Write the structure tokens for this entry.
Amino acid sequence: MDIAIKDGKIVEKVDEKKAEVVDASRMIVMPGGVDIHCHIAGAEVNSGRILRPEDHFKDVEAKTALTRSGVGYSIPSTFTTGYRYSRMGYTTVMNPSMPPLEARHTHEELDDTPMVDKATYPLLGDWWFVLEHLRDGLLEECAAHVAWMMSATKGYAIKIVNPGGLEAWGFGRNVKNLDDPVRYFNITPREILRGLCRVNKLLNMPHTIHVHTNNLGQPGNYLTTLETMKCVEDLAEEGHPAIHITHCQFSAFKGSDWGTMSSGAEEIAKYVNHHSHVTLDMGQVIFTDTTTMTADGPFQYGLYQLSGNKWVNHDVETETSAGIVPFRYKRKSAVHATQWSIALELALLIKDPWKIYMTTDHPNGGPFTAYPHIIAWLMSGVARKKTMSKISKRARRKSLLPSIARELGFYEIAIVTRAGQAKALGLKQKGHLGVGADADVAVYDINPELVDPSKKYKTARRAFKRAAYTIKGGEIVVKDGQIVRPVFGKTFWVDVKTSLPIEVNDDIKRKFREYWTVEYENYPIPDRFLHVPAPIPVKAEV
Amino acid sequence: MTVVTGVTCPVCGTFCDDIELVVKDNVITDVRNACAMGAAKFLNYSTHRNLRPLVRKNGELVEASIDEAVKRAAEILVDATYPILYGWSNTSCEAIRVGVELTEEVGGVIDNTSTVCHGPSVLSIQDVGIASCTLGQLRHRADLIFYWASNPWSAHPRHIERYTMFSEGRFQKSAWRGYLSRLGGIMSRKRLRRAANLVLRRDVFATPEVERRLPYSMFQKKRKMVVVDVRNTRTAEAADYFLQVEPNKDYELLQAFRMLIRDEELDVSEVAGVPVEILEEVADVMVGCELGILFFGVGLTMSEGKLRNVDAALNLTRDLNSHTKFLIMPMRGHFNVTGADVVFAWQTGYPYAIDFSHGYPRYNPGETSVIDILCRDEADASLIIASDPVAHFPQKAAQNLVKKPLIAIDPEVTPTTLMADVVFPSAFVGIEAHGTAYRMDHVPLPLKKIVEPPKTCLPDTEILQRILHKVRKLRREQN
Ligand code: SF4
Ligand SMILES: [Zn+2]
């Protein structure tokens, strides 16, 4: 079968005599990879880079005639990030955690991240405007403000991290569960989640709310996760997802403390298998030295106390917080090995690959460059067994993996690494190779008719590490795992048109001045600030 | 006449963004909201400036065209084997981005002024981390504010009013009133003292009893400010309490606080000149606050024991978080020194002192920092932007700097531009050119173009881009 490409799009056919031909026979052709959740740019990622020179020393990229130099490992510099994704056949990546006040920073970095299309999600779950409007039952006003924020920060989706907990963290506190009210604001996490879920629908956002649950990283939190999914059940339209639970592994712990911690994957998978309003991503843990970074200030503080490692905290006025702690996942640690197992259990026990996507929550579970390893574990029981034999005995005893025979095929891998992610994101022109799609294509040098990946998982791993070709917007940008043409990607943002946008009057300006330490007019980012802006117009219901 | 609002002030790290400028015929005629330092910049910026590019010929700096200067600069950089590109804290992030690319292209070393001010802070942060925030977080929540070895009243004049003591937040109110009454007290004490001196002909208040208790206001449930410094300053006068530390004893004091908040006994009667009773009370106030913040200045990073001092301060605030919320922030000086660190880091992984001579970024402050390179006399050319190392570097470093070909990009005439071989007079960023800069707390804000620069003064970004182009062209020709 031939795939015809013209002007950056997949088309019916082209003039074969004039066209450049890429021979992909005996290889796998997929749409370009799509990553729904990876921290690659912005204030917290960059503080991680500054914090950890030791992370970069041994993994460097020299300048070439075509590419910029940089450093790698768990928090690569921006250029290196773009090149490494592209070499693996990825063409679209989503940066999930942007403090709105520091949005300019995120976009400056995304502009310096070549090779891929990208977008970023503003953190809105603890924004005072949201808390106050939802508390007062002013749903439409809340929606108007969120719409304004998407445009002001050039954002793509509503990100919620530990709802209510980040505001509480402003004074060093946290919330305990979905019904624990936020001090001074008299609103519960449940109300925030439900409110923003409805706002999301009112605004017709392409993606659902993107949620990092309360109690993340705590034993017993799988119950919170179940509650979180349930709490928006009635808001979903039949067959349409209403919530994305991100890096679900970190929110799927059973047990009452670290000694009794075990997997809650079975319960979560069961729930997800019976409901159609949830999508998830894995948050796979890799046994390596990495850097954890989330907007979840209290979680990061807990991790610092647990590990004794260095700790960065960065609270952002009126909006959110952030924390960074370097972390090493050890095979021989029962907790870490259980985490490793949980993510795979989730991916294998959830029957529909369109519901769970492959991520490491880069760099929280490990760097994105480990994706080929995860693919091998997903495709091969042998690969899982091999790793299992090296992990903590206690974790091995408790792991559900030995009881799971399922092995994903190439088709399912294509879903969990691109098609499913694109669909969940509402990126209609990504994740498939139908006519009209963006000409983002990955070709992997492995013959699916001859190679059985469940046995030859190493061959598969090698193939996914270095794409034979990556085609971005119709141009061959990678050949045999090498960058052959540096390109800029686009930055998507959602341009929501509401019938009653917030009126910029003296009142709102005064309110801005009260809430933030910057002037109203210096807050929004103009479209021209982005290198290649790609607004997605959306008509809201309000 | 037009009024431009929401202008950011390209002077200090406070980076106020509420400045209003009155502009008439491409001239700024009035400045509102700025402090004296900021206003002076907007009104007088163009009094001492070069208008044309200069190139040194037969020992004399003579006027040249921009193209000529670009060519000469590119030749210098291409001929050099180990050039340094230094400055960057007073220009836009857009210019810094080109700067890193240029350094990579010529295989040189790029460094910013962190190297001479908060470099030790960065190294300490890389050791232990840092618990910090944006400034508005403090305006809304901080009820205990420490300025340690920094004097914002003179160096960051609007810091206290915009972000800390005298700012009005959601959960914390401005402490302006308390200050006024205290000020009244200070004034009347000064008056009394003057009168007493006149009448009694001796200095009655010369040797006051060392106080063994904190003033009453330190125990009130309201916003409080403590200044720790080796000498009395305007900021100290405005504080609820001034803790005078003996010179070079900051480390001892910080460690004493760490012990006290861990409930350990100190078996001495004073530390760094301060009675232990006082320290105990201050430690109690720290532990009991809702949210505390410790701002530290160059006084801490550049006094004896640099690294150790900052380490101790970072550890102190980190420890305090097991009792309450306590944050810490360096008082960065130049308006975009934070931006320089930030851009360096996202492009190379490291915040300053980055060496590209191996083709990839290498970082080893002490070896790859410009002062050390200059002291070892290893650099064979340099490009200095928006900075004046000839005046501010240690003598030996400055001497070695001017010995070799020197390119200067600066809107102003400085000792460095006078010694340079190629001088580019640039547009003042934030007044004559736009861009982005980062406030001391990492909040990015736009720099605005208010008036047109003189035709011969290009923005830094453009000058650097032209040099980069020319460098690439020359190198292609050589191959
Ligand atoms: S405090 Fe600093 S930034 Fe603010 S007006 Fe004064 S000089 Fe400018
Ligand atoms: Zn994440």
